[in-house]
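Researcher: Dear colleague, please comment on this protein.
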Amino acid sequence: MKLDIANLNPQKTFEEILKEEKELIYSVLFYTAGLLVGSLGFSLIKSEMLIKGIKAIFTPHAGNLTSIFICNFALYISIFAVTVLLGLFLIGYPIINSIPLIIGCSVGLKVAFFYITYGVKGVGYSLLLVIPQAAIFTTVVVYTIRQSAQISRYILNCVTSKEAGEPLKVKSLLKRYITYTLAVTSAAFVNALFTFLLSDLIKI
């Protein structure tokens, strides 16, 4: 599933490589666009109500580590499940890249919020509270989209032609999705742990 540059066929043109890796490229582009929209949007919008709402959402609150983890896990696994389902339905696949766009926007908002609210300290808060879990979770979503693209194309071939091509390796797919689920769990735990540890330090 990974893009292994060492194993790329040197006879393939740049356009062919782009076509083969279009799901990965689209996901990265949409995520980057979300980052820009989120960070610039927070900086430009001067609505006091919006800022208070964002502060209420993104400011760590004291609580039990287990409860914080459960809340984070419920959110992450829900987004992950939606990503998987959108790839399984032909009608949903065209909008699947809205997921990395939304995630990027959320990360951009968080980073901008911490920087504008806390200044230089906000950079450190972002490195602890935003970047680790965002990196893990976004990577999972990107590869889930890539995996779902293969399934979607297979379903499309089954619907539009008599021969669907090489059968899907169900066991291999299940192993990948289990691995992705474990990664989502790790992202939720990392976020919960740092939120719990810094809940008494970060106060507005």
Notes: The CA atoms of residues 71 and 81 lie 15 Å apart.
